[in-house]
Amino acid sequence: MMFAVAAILAFSIQFSAAQNPISPSGTFIPDPSARVGQDGKMYVYGSLDTSDGTYCSNRYHLLYSDDLRDWKLVKDIFTCGEPLYAPDVCFAGGECHLFYDCPGGSEWTAVSDNPEGPFEDISRIEGPDQIDPCIFIDDDGQVYYFWGQISAKGAKMNPDLKTLDLSTFKDSLVTEGEHWFHEGGFVFKRGKFYYFVYASLRRRNKPTCLSYAMSTSPLGPYEYKGEIIDNAGCDPGVWNNHGSVVEYKGKWYVFYHRSTHGDRFMRKACVEPITFRENGTIVEAEMTSQGAGAPLDAFSTTAARRACLLEGEVRITLDTDNPGREILTHAGNGDWAAFKYFSFNGRQPRRAIVRVRPKNGGRIWIGFDQTYAGEKGGTDVPAGNGKRWKELSFDIDGPGDTGKTHAVFVHFSGEKDCELFDLDWIKFE
């Protein structure tokens, strides 16, 4: 029998994450399932990556917010004797129902009267034998349970929210062959349409996209419609995606994850606003640094971990000399990192300041397009022992129209293929 323990020692940490990722520095929460609680707050449940080489861990953390700008992290809301994969929750009858799966395909549920736990009354859900549970409550109160890989499955739940009405079971709601479905299903409704969101093999034969299919019935048939967001380019080791779509205070958002560390097993939750066309289809969102927050302030310090696109071997990792802090490392000749988007508030920047930790040394350039080669905008970074940080200041060519937001590109060059220098933060003056 599955052994699980409610996290009676859970504790919370307040932090500001108005930009992406919404997971705080040093915490790796992928597979975000975003749910609006009965108290009106946004709760984001996900699995927890703790080291490279394997997905997930044996515990869940929780993120929640009432404005999608300032978030609170609650650690260890639920722990288990085995790895815990992507979860989902639903709020019903004044309770929070947690659904989760474990190695071997067993799926389970636990209940709490508080979104932060502790979760008790643990029981196995008979019928499902794969990963990635998703719960959907229709307008009439009927609860549906979805799960599966390669071929998505679904059925109505009985009123106890612990068992399935297997007479309603349907297979192949979305499939790899017809919909590019890989895993990570999430169902929501808007207007008359039901949307099945999932990690998709639509591009590059990797499940980096969150794609979606639409139907007029929760159990299908579903028709493939397109992509919502693609996390390709967030990290050199990116492999998969997983997320959810939710309306909050009159606006719609997609929650998804990005890889870090050049490793598919280290991932972090992010969020972007989305829009719908008149026919109900979704406009594909762009990965940004600002996320649900305002554009980055060009004249304040911006942490390098906010980079949303990385080219080459450069990646975001934990600083080994300062545990819990994330920086840009492994920068090589020709690599670049992009931040989207900055606001200059009508002021033309004349200089850039960066905090770097020299290794083999090289040159850093900052500009406003992907192939920047302006007359100004760069400075040499001397070689060093990779131990000491230093600030460098240099002239730049401004972006021109400071009434608009601009992407910022940081370019790396040098004689070595990698490990030129690390980057901690950037700012303008």
Notes on the protein architecture:
This protein has 429 residues and is mainly β. Helices cover 1% and strands 48% of the residues. It has one helix at 176-179; strands at residues 4-6, 11-16, 33-36, 42-45, 57-65, 70-84, 88-92, 95-101, 107-112, 120-124, 134-137, 143-147, 153-157, 164-170, 181-190, 193-200, 209-215, 223-230, 244-248, 251-260, 263-274, 296-297, 302-303, 309-311, 315-318, 326-329, 336-343, 351-358, 362-367, 378-381, 390-395, 406-413, 421-428. The strands form eight sheets. Strands 1, 2, 3, 4, 5 and 6 form a six-stranded antiparallel beta sheet that branches. Strands 22, 24, 27, 29, 30 and 32 form a six-stranded mixed beta sheet that branches. The protein has a four-stranded antiparallel beta sheet with strand order 7-8-9-10, with no helix packed on it. A hairpin with a 5-residue loop joins strand 12 (143-147) and strand 13.
Largest sheet: 6 strands, antiparallel
Specify the overall morphology: elongated
How many helices? 1
The percent range for helix content is: under 10%
Indicate the radius of gyration in whole angstroms: 22 Å
Give the termini distance in whole angstroms: 61 Å
Beta content: over 45%
**Mean pLDDT across residues:** 93
- Are there runs of 5+ residues with pLDDT below 50, and where? 5-9
